[in-house]
């Protein structure tokens, strides 16, 4: 018997080593992953693939992460999007734009994996009275 389908996560980052590391860490935890190197590719994948969550870099060539977040929100309302960024002080903007969470690079992978699991389970952020998908964590 195959068991339940694995959650499918889109990883969007234009830096190949970062993208590959995030994909490798997620795959090691049993998640199905798909990767995109830019905003256009990310939106194309989101239209074509059933996704459960997106990890999205902000500093993308062409359509930046904010443009992609807006596009994902239109394409798939309610799809949790976690911002991964090297840009400081983006938490308030991410919250206002509808991001579920925000992590500053370098990434804390144990915390990121816990957040991914929590969002996929639909649980609220610890200490939050808001539903999952609406708290922004700074790491």
Q: What would you note in describing this structure?
A:
It is a single chain. The protein is of the alpha/beta class and 139 residues long. The termini are far apart. Helix content is 39%, strand content 17%. The chain is globular, with a radius of gyration of 14 Å. Helix 2 (39-48) packs parallel to helix 3 (65-75). A five-stranded parallel sheet has the order 2-1-3-4-5, with helices on both faces.
Provide the fold topology.
Layout: E1 8-12, H1 16-28, E2 32-36, H2 39-48, E3 53-57, H3 65-75, E4 81-85, H4 91-97, E5 101-104, H5 109-121
Parallel strand pairs: 1-2, 1-3, 3-4, 4-5
Helix pairs in contact: 2-3
Summarize the structure.
The protein has 5 helices and 5 strands. With 139 residues, it is an alpha/beta fold. Helix 2 runs parallel beside helix 3.
Gross geometry: globular
Radius of gyration: 14 Å
Mean pLDDT: 89
What portion of residues belong to β-strands? 15-25%
The multimeric state of the shown protein is: single chain
Instruction: Give the distance, in angstroms, between the N- and C-terminal Cα atoms.
Output: 39 Å
Please count the beta strands (DSSP E, at least 2 residues each).
5
Amount of helix: 25-40%
Largest sheet: 5 strands, parallel
Sketch the topology as an H/E string, one letter per element: EHEHEHEHEH
CATH superfamily: Response regulator
The CATH architecture would be: 3-Layer(aba) Sandwich
- The spatial strand order of the largest sheet comes to 2-1-3-4-5
Report the structural category: alpha/beta
Number of domains: 1
Would you identify the regions where 5 or more consecutive residues have pLDDT less than 50?
127-139
What is the third-level CATH name, the topology? Rossmann fold
